[in-house]
Amino acid sequence: MKLIRFDALLLLLQLLFSKAASEFNIETLPGYSGTLPVKLETGYIDVGETEEVQLFYYFVESESNPKTDPILLWLTGGPGCSALSGLFYENGPLAFDVVDFDGSLPSIHQNPYSWTKVANIIFIDWPVGTGFSYANTSKGYSSSDTKSAKDNYTFLRKWLLNHPMFMKNRLYVVGDSYGGKLVPMVALEISKGNGAGLQPRISFQVLIYYLYDNSIFILKFCNITLMRDCNGKYYNPDPKNLQCLYALRLIQESIKNVNRGHILEPKCKHIAPKPNELGWDQTLAEDDSIDHLLLPSKINGLWCRFQTYVTSYIWANDPTVQEALHIKKGTITDWTRCNNSLSYAHNIESVVQYHKILSRKGYEALVYNGDHDMLITYMGTLKWIHSLNLTIDDEWRPWNVHGQVAGLVSNSLSHPFT
Known about the structure:
CATH class of the largest domain: Alpha Beta
Protein name: Serine carboxypeptidase-like 18
CATH architecture of the largest domain: 3-Layer(aba) Sandwich
Oligomer: single chain
Keywords: Carboxypeptidase, Hydrolase, Protease, Signal
Helix content: 25-40%
Organism: Olea europaea subsp. europaea
Number of helices: 10
Low-confidence stretches: 213-223, 274-294
CATH topology of the largest domain: Rossmann fold
Structural class: alpha+beta
Order of helices and strands: HEEEEHEEEEEHEHHHEEEEEEHHEHHEE
Mean pLDDT: 80
Distance between the termini: 44 Å
GO molecular function, one term: serine-type carboxypeptidase activity
Strand content: 15-25%
């Protein structure tokens, strides 16, 4: 039996996987004047047991030193919210001009605070059915927590084999909202793959994730009544516990007009983004979906964050934009920022065990909570830390930015698992 050299094996894998991927360098985009200020790549990589799923991605090279700067795999939440949200509304290098937006194709400008100043970022449309990702079969559109974790790992391996110049770069797995639940699951897949000798070996050293809307960390309310009547269980309470249900209903009634994502921002009535020959549908919607948008972006003098998302609908559904991004024709008929009709099974209730395993292996984690966020409060993270039996080596202290207190921080958590 002949031994195959390691570099020859990688070459063979690259040749095999290159057939399963398509990638394009994007130099210009509709809405941006001139050549893009960053190196942007888009493409598809097929995953799944029969490679029936085509996951779409945006890759932006670091503006500093892409050959040595780390790679971030960014997992937007939902599940079902497009990676375009991260690219244009969060930490990406581009942003829509929402101030001067008039309903036509929005203008694009550069984001001076982009994370691509120091890192390469892969923004991925996950799971299948999100953004521009699609499946070749109807069965392929079914997904779950566990399947998504495996698909994202397969995506990452194939992407690296098609980009061998980044194989030695340190990798960070990052997510917000529901993506925070998938991050430790993907991280464990990477760790197991490295341990099994799967190629390419990923330079996975540090785990970073953000938790925002993950059911296992929900601890919305903390008062004497709930502690007494609900026995500390506020999520999925016992339906027979009428006192607890009544207490929760009172709380819900008292906060129904509060913006739970940011309690200091107004809660606005929304308008559904359904285009017609006269423009955007002006029918008021009363539900809490963040994808009901309003045009213009200010109503009665109030600025509403979610209403600015209308720019993405106009932009991503424009035929010239889809052509510039090299979207396969006929695969997506109506792009939505967040797909709320996915065939998705939430089959992992708790990822605490994933955290314990990763912590034993020596991986580090950064957890972020907004102190004005009522969807996921910092109290939930504190409870999670205690549940992991971690010891705080460095007590909580003020975190200062330009001489001002911007929050509280604690680090250097030890890992005394038994």
